[in-house]
User: Fold these one by one.
Assistant:
Number 1:
Amino acid sequence: MIDDETLDRAVKAGILNAAQREALLTLATDTLDEQTAEQATAPSVDDQMRLVGGGNDIFVTVGVTLLFAGALFALRSVFVEGNTAIAVAIALGSWVVAEIVTRQKRMRLSSTLLALIFMAAALSLLIEAVMNRVNLPSDLNAFALLALRSEAGPVGLILGGGLIAVAGLYFFRFKVPILAGVAAIAATGLAFLGAVVFYHDQMVSGAVAAPLPEQLADILANALAVPLVCGLAIFLVAVWLDLRDRERQTVWSDCAFWLHVVSAPLLVHPLFILATGQEVLSGQIEPGLSASILLGLMMAVFVLVALAIDRRSLLAPTLAYFGSVGIYYLVNGAANTTGIPPFALILIAIGAMVILFGAGWQRIRGLIIRPILPTSVLDRLPPIKA
């Protein structure tokens, strides 16, 4: 920036006149103020999730909750429960309110709530469409469901495909990130349905024998491949979005946050069962030394991946699941010898890890990730601010 003395000499030399000098100073001051404001409001690269927009956003969220709760009770008093008019009215009402709250004011928390209200109303309409198409028997059991094989495809497309389409339409209009998670859950549901239909057709054709009761647990264990593959696919999409926005400043970064939230349990649960040998039906676990080692290695891998991509949203469900179930069996022996309740040790261990990662996340990233990853990889990951 040119200083005042240089500008004064330019005026004396006839290069500038006094009015031009003042105009240049004003322009330079305004530019500096804008840059300072942008730096103050720019989100930090620290697993930023722009969910709450401030006190007014929370205030409006309370208003949205009261408005639609009252509207739901009022509509139920006018229409018969289950009438499609209720869902249509709620969907239209949430869309109209979103035009103001989301499109104009960009309130984050209330916009998320409005999106979920709209999707709930849309799901209700889709379920009603399925009920009108398929006559479900009053005595619903496994054999009755198998008899509906011909309707499986249309039902899946109506529910799963319809939910994805509605979420896409709403996102195209309002850019609400949580809809990425909703679409991912719907796609996972479609994948589950496809796997069930495929297995049913294999049994009918004779390619696979019908399972005996004692084989049911093994079949369910093999079915864990579906959530594992879906979780991995969702995780890869989330990482791809993160790599497109290393500075975490666009809506796609927020979409990646919700995709990580969805993918984490889909990945953790199957891997936990594979590591510990948990019996799927009863939930019993009898881990030996090898299972405990695998469990510890899996937790370490999840921690490293979360640190590398700078996503605590991936780590939080992992710690919660492993902490509530896995660590119980790891510390149960210590509890039996010391007399301390296992639940207390679980709380201490998980609480200490959460505080450690929460308070020193970027410093831990720098200490662990910098030495183990090459510069070419680090340059593609979110910057480490330590």
Number 2:
Amino acid sequence: MRIDRSGLHDTVLAGVVAAASVAQFVLYGPARLQAEGLPAEGVRAPDPLGALLVVLACAPVAVRRRWPLAALCAGLVPEALLDVAGYGTGVSALSGMVLLYSVASHRGLAVALGALLLAVTTYAVGAVAGPVMASGPNEHVVFAVVLVAVWGAGRSLRLRRAYLEELKDRAARLERAHAADTRAARAEERSRIARELHDVVAHHVSVMTVQAAAARRVLAADPDLAREALSAIEHTGRLAMTEMRNIVGVLRTDARAELGPQPGVRDLPSLVEQMREAGLPTSLRVEGEPVPLPAGVDLAAYRLVQEGLTNSLRHAGAGVKAVVTVRHDPGELDVEVRDDGNGGKSGDGGGRGGDSRDGEVSLPSGHGLVGIRERVALYGGILSIGPLPGGGFEVRARFPLKDGL
């Protein structure tokens, strides 16, 4: 069972305030006032009725946080009766200050100002209607200043509490925004990894399929050639596993950095040689002066060539030749993959399609060249995909390079 500690603390505080007020009421009777040279004319001597009124004035302190304004009003009634009955002004002033502080610290400005005005009015009425304990008007001014100071302390506490709540709320909002950004970054990273895996798997599996078919055809007639094809399949499979292991390894760590360097234009000679081994005669042409490329553009260019050559290997037909051309123009990188096969026919539905400008391209529902479209569009490039006049197929992209890169 959960205990309301704030209510318990307020109850204890009410008891302490009541004890102190009753002690003041009993000790500072007319005789004590006269002994100290204070005006005591008309002041009523302490009695049980007065003590009861003092306790009733202090009792609302027990609920000062739950109903602060109601508690203040309830406490001011016995205090006013004490003044009117002649027990002296300010007998239960301590409880009134506690209740005024509670209203100022737990309620809005309008209610707090109303409570201050009510407390000052009650004191003024008691000072006029009952015997005056003060030695002069200066005492009334001092008491009014004390009331305002108590009220100001309560308002300061409320403003500080509101400021801290605002800071907590802002921190919670920032934490939620950070969590949303983290989720978005993770989703983007998974999408990127999915594209990378598709490119790797589609390319290497296509090469292995072609090599396996060639090995099957010559297995009986030329075992040595079949053995070479099987060795090439093994080598291609190991390359695929190594590259996929590097990519999937990113999923096992919170770091965003790659576990290994990503392929780029510098790796195109190895890719072309691999395609030659797979049975697609391929040549590479590099025009212009090579310049350092942004990492994203470098990877996108490599994947475009990889997907274009894989497309040619799978769908262009027998006896096809492919040409890869990389042009380094001022402010632009032009990458082109052409073959002289049956470019007008579609293979797996994901390879051969239409033309695009500014990254927009009309493609079938496959994922290969669709992924290329997304890569090129990401870097503001222009992608062109489609059959060539007179036969053949072309995949071409032009990437703008900023600041001379």
